[in-house]
Known about the structure:
It is built from 9 helices and 8 strands. The protein has helices at residues 2-10, 17-26, 35-44, 113-127, 139-142, 153-160, 177-191, 199-216, 227-234, and strands at residues 73-83, 89-97, 103-108, 132-135, 164-167, 260-261, 270-273, 276-279.
Amino acid sequence: MKMVRLDLYNKVLFCGAQAIHWELETLGVSPRPSLRTINRILRRHELTHRRTGRYEPTGRKYPALEGTSVNHVQQSDFVGPRFLHGPTRFYSLNTVDLATGRCAIEPLMTRDAQHTIDAFWAVWRRLGLPTHQQVDNEMVFYGSPTHPRGMGCLIRLCLHYGIELWFIPKGEPWRNGVVEKFNAQYDQKFFRRTEMADETALRQQSMLFEQKHNRHYRYSKLKGRTPLEALAMSNKPLSFPTEEQAPRHPLPKPERGKYHLVRFIRSDGILDVFGEKFYVPQ
């Protein structure tokens, strides 16, 4: 137990009780101690200290969404490019429901508009439609700085289905902190440890990791429950896209709805909206 924890720590991987339990499973150790037993052993040997040096944002608070109920807020982010064994490049659209911790992992080989629409559609077909969808400022999400009022594929997709899209402040990925933390788990517990030779294996293994996380990963914020247990306790019905196939790009420009940009306006008074600049009063 101690050696597994130290090995994970030295590899700069997650090294808490959950990570140790998963590592023991990977090593084929049976029977495995419970999470409570692992935590008790870690405390006994004073191995509960956290790794230092992690960035902690300071300064003024920005408007931030809180996941108050199931699918109230989903955070999404692209991971990649990553490479399979060989020259195959891919990306992964990772999404987390803030209230339950349920994840969805959708690999895609290119981040063009249609593949991005397909990826979000597949995520919503598994997690359900969110009230608020939060992302960073990837160009494919908002469109193009050349045509800042054109509405990118994700803006149009969300507005057509009554979802409020939120863009976090530019250059501040920690504002999407829940999915960013999950991305670290994806890298450490899945991508670095899973042999995948082609796109078929990538999709199969991604789905297996998604299911394993949702069924077995226990969150302290959920009082030790798994994401699926938290979903079951909520008793909230989910809303899913009715069509199996994703809409085709380009979607028509919506006439109503709203999306949000969270921005810090400096002393020059300039508000930058996807490349279009506005001067605002002091």
